[in-house]
Amino acid sequence: MTGLLICAGLGIEARAIRRGLPARLDGTRVVVTGVGPRRAARAAAGLGGRGPVAVAGFGGAVDRSLRPGDVLVASEVRFGGRVHPCPTAPLLAGELARAGLPAKVGPLVTADHVVSGAERHRLAAAGAYAVDMETGPLAHAAGGRPLAAVRVIVDTPEAPLLSPATLARGVAARRTLSVVGPVLVRWAAAAGPRTVLLAEPRSFCAGVERAIEIVELALERHGPPVYVRKQIVHNLHVVEDLGRRGAVFVDELDEVPAGAVTVFSAHGVSPKVREEAARRGLRVIDATCPLVSKVHAEARRFASEGRLVALIGHAGHEEAEGTLGESGESGVLVQTVNDVAALPADRPVSYLMQTTLAEDEAAEIAAAIRRRFPDALEPKRNDICYATTNRQRAVHAIAEESDVVLVVGSVNSSNSLRLVEVAARHSPAHLVDDQGGIALDWLAGARTIGLSAGASAPPRLVDDIVAALRGLGEVTVEERVIAQETVRFSLPKEALS
């Protein structure tokens, strides 16, 4: 979408913004509104156009987490008893952060006077982050147009506006505004109507839901801290949320106090870890996914029969480490087709699979094993879990119709990475932790966006992305359903006692 209008209260702010813009930039205007709500309201009456509206300039912090030089991207603008949402704020803040600016998201209040002293504290107590004197009327005039408000913090409760250091802070803020300008141009280029294709199934699977519930129950029944070996599931938001509630995530058991309540993650552990937990008297609750436990049982059975256990998987992944531990000296990790040639041929061969692999990738390696060892035993049932398979097929269905595919998940999530690989065979695909990870350039010109989430990603993150995209223009949501998941796993008895 073209026709970006950038409004600034002061000429010095407008000049700083223009300084960062390319010499020739069709469709972008930078206007000076004048200081204060009355002047901003008069300017708003003559805005015209239908393109995105951005308000940028200096601002004063009321929240003590903000420092001079920080950039506040308004999540909403409060003025005159009205609240104007800015749903694209996380997208814009993420882009500003990638441009090297210390960006934060929070509510912005427009006042008709310079706010200081106790009034700042009252605004902060009401949840506000910063205050300005122009954005409110402009936000109201923008109507349904894409709206952004960006304020570079010059003064704070600890660094008042009327102080000798204000001049230096103002000079630094001008430099920051020159970086903000090009980011606003990219934001406007990403605006426009689009269709979002939602892959279904997506987000949490039964094993992830079970693991999270186990930690929540442990916190409820035993109180914090509850220790969790490794990440309970591979998702940053899940780990941070449980951490705020009292879960303590550790890499190894020697970080856990003797006798403490300890949860094993959904990816499973090796027998050595279980033995160490028993030696240290830990109160263990095992959150291993039942489908991973099935693979462990197969590994023990094949190893007990004197077979080589070839595990098709990825080095360093907790699930692979646990399964290899169950295999003992019989286990060998196979990551590629080339690894098959190095497998020893001194005993009967069997193979297993990490549950989060891409189907076709694992099938290719399995076929290579069968070619070299025609008598190799395979799992009685497919080791790749139903949730992984369903999500890969669903993302394949949307990728063929999409200009770009976004997969919500963390970088250490194997199943999420596989979804990106599957999607990338048909269209550009990107892994994002949340809406802040979306580069605006990915959205420019993309009128159909595919959206999915790994089995460890909370559903709300998908909803957040759709909401952010709606802030850029009208969004039509269509769902592509390839399966209905009804699987539920019971909790271990240790979690209920």
UniProtKB/TrEMBL annotation:
Isopentenyl diphosphate binds at residues 234, 267, 317, 413-415, 456. This is 4-hydroxy-3-methylbut-2-enyl diphosphate reductase. Its cofactor is [4Fe-4S] cluster. The active site is at residue 319. Binds 1 [4Fe-4S] cluster per subunit. The gene is ispH. [4Fe-4S] cluster binds at residues 205, 289, 385. Catalyzes the conversion of 1-hydroxy-2-methyl-2-(E)-butenyl 4-diphosphate (HMBPP) into a mixture of isopentenyl diphosphate (IPP) and dimethylallyl diphosphate (DMAPP). Acts in the terminal step of the DOXP/MEP pathway for isoprenoid precursor biosynthesis. Pathway: Isoprenoid biosynthesis; dimethylallyl diphosphate biosynthesis; dimethylallyl diphosphate from (2E)-4-hydroxy-3-methylbutenyl diphosphate: step 1/1; Isoprenoid biosynthesis; isopentenyl diphosphate biosynthesis via DXP pathway; isopentenyl diphosphate from 1-deoxy-D-xylulose 5-phosphate: step 6/6. The keyword Flavoprotein does not apply.
